[in-house]
Fold this protein.
Amino acid sequence: MTVTLADVAARAQVSPATVSRVLNGNYPVAASTRERVLKAVDELDYVLNGPASALAAATSDLVGILVNDIADPFFGIMASAIQAEIGGPGGRAGGERLAVVCNTGGSPERELTYLTLLQRQRAAAVVLTGGAIEDAAHQAAMDAKVRKLGEAGTRVVLCGRPPAPDTGAIALTFDNRGGGQELTEHLIGLGHRRLGYIAGPEERTTTRHRLEGHRAALAAHGIEEDPRWTVHGRYDRRSGYEATLELLRRDPSLTAVVAANDSVALGACAALRDSGLRIPEDVSVAGFDDLPFSIDAVPSLTTVRLPLAEAGARAGRIAMGREEAPPGGIASVRGELMVRGSSGVPRAS
Amino acid sequence: MTVTLADVAARAQVSPATVSRVLNGNYPVAASTRERVLKAVDELDYVLNGPASALAAATSDLVGILVNDIADPFFGIMASAIQAEIGGPGGRAGGERLAVVCNTGGSPERELTYLTLLQRQRAAAVVLTGGAIEDAAHQAAMDAKVRKLGEAGTRVVLCGRPPAPDTGAIALTFDNRGGGQELTEHLIGLGHRRLGYIAGPEERTTTRHRLEGHRAALAAHGIEEDPRWTVHGRYDRRSGYEATLELLRRDPSLTAVVAANDSVALGACAALRDSGLRIPEDVSVAGFDDLPFSIDAVPSLTTVRLPLAEAGARAGRIAMGREEAPPGGIASVRGELMVRGSSGVPRAS
DNA sequence: AGCGTTGCAGCAAGCGCTTTCTATATACGG
DNA sequence: CCGTATATAGAAAGCGCTTGCTGCAACGCT
């Protein structure tokens, strides 16, 4: 059998209670006793039984991080920052926590199931990252779950996700609308009047907000949008490639393509190049997020930098109760326009 | 208080044992009874207590995935594939498992601590991804942990990691040596004789194997390597940029730069461009891994494709006992040379 | 009719830990 | 010196679930 607390206690000639207290360090134990116990633990190579401990203490040291797509650096970067703050091992003092990231793959059911699993494990905290799915039923279900988690003592933090009112969850949202607007205004400022837009999946808050910002900019400058100028797709390169081809087919006179994110923008660049168009001389391209590879594109990508790591770190700290929640439980995180080589003045038409 | 099994039992007018059996579906229960129980579960919105269940059953539904850097798509892609197979929720039938990915950040201590945490949680399986750290003490500690996990019933699978003999762990290793050799041979075949090499961090198996492959190719063609041609760095773009500048400083006559991975190669491309050199006319560049963005580089990157997703999926299946382990518990996964625009014949010297 | 099967359900004993309460020993003030 | 704080250790009662075993009908066989 595996070594138990009792074995350690026997070896150290103390009661199990004392061993538990030494291990948790939440009760005075004489230095000499502590040493004896620690020695026994070491000698027996004892490893605490997590489930038993969680059961008895009615809390666990698990912290969940939900992401839509773990293969996407957008989420990878946030998850990494969150996890670093959760402490995981290697973090600083305090109870060691197992920060785990769960990949929902963008599926509503998975999202919910993971939340249940986390609830089942009596997670200490949960951080939900990325845009939410805009489906009334699903949102209601999510809100209910979140509320229940909160009631059970699990701290819930939303990072890069719109607030969920009345659920008690702290929200750190990205100002996707503002960023989208700023980006398109930059393009308009350069002289563009015919701008294609490659949006993300339809029922996502991120998609909608970025698109709204784009449209707000157009509206602010009296540019009437042609419905043909918007195409929806996934948040990946492939989708950007195809959507760009489609855009070009619909209206070859476009002088700029705004993409839902950097990966999509890269796909757009590839499609433009393959169509014999130069960037930015013939068509300007803009992305969103400013992921690490964006600067390496040729020409480098004009985009909106989102402070992914910073926001993640903050979310992690809040989840651990090491930083105060923002007033009202909601904070909006702004992006920063990064003007680079992929955007320029439009070609003479 | 939260709802417990007993509450459900009371409501369904059966014993707790019966409820447990309905939930686990591992014991015959009359259909009518089952329905009554399920109804009660639903009405009370009951969620199983994970720790209690794990304690009583002496196993948990946790599966750990250890990665070196979650923000790196190399790991993200593998993790994603593994997780998809583990089932997480959304997967197919069978007990639902919580697949969690743990980010070691490449730190030996974290790696060990996470393993302990997973052991503490009585994880059902653990998948270790990526290169191992070459430090005798650390390796011994890891091996001991892995062995212990195995003894405790946790299935351990190594994915893209060298085998750990006598630990009982199944290993799916990447043929980094072979891939590295093939890549360099391609360059030599094009006529290159002065090749710079940007290696990864010193004490990593992946770094060493790729470098060994490179050197084997040089040796096979009677090319004597100048020690100045090798620079070590991290596995990121920045490091590739700096290393390339250093390489150029040491020997401007180099006609090719082989990078430890694609990110590094991208950095190398940037450095070359910034130095006024054309790719591949002046200097050829090659990467490793074939991450999604590699094809988007301009020119697109010659590299060695590693079947990250496939290997991950297989590792996941093995971890779940849904696929047989390879004979001897070890399988080598080969990479595939992808010749693209970044490599060409060397310039006339 | 008698009796071994079979199919379902319940009993109850833990799983290994935490924690409240109690006990003992030492220290302190008067 | 004694009564009472003050440390420190132990006893024991669970935490909520699983599961081996027992119980009891209904069933089929000879």
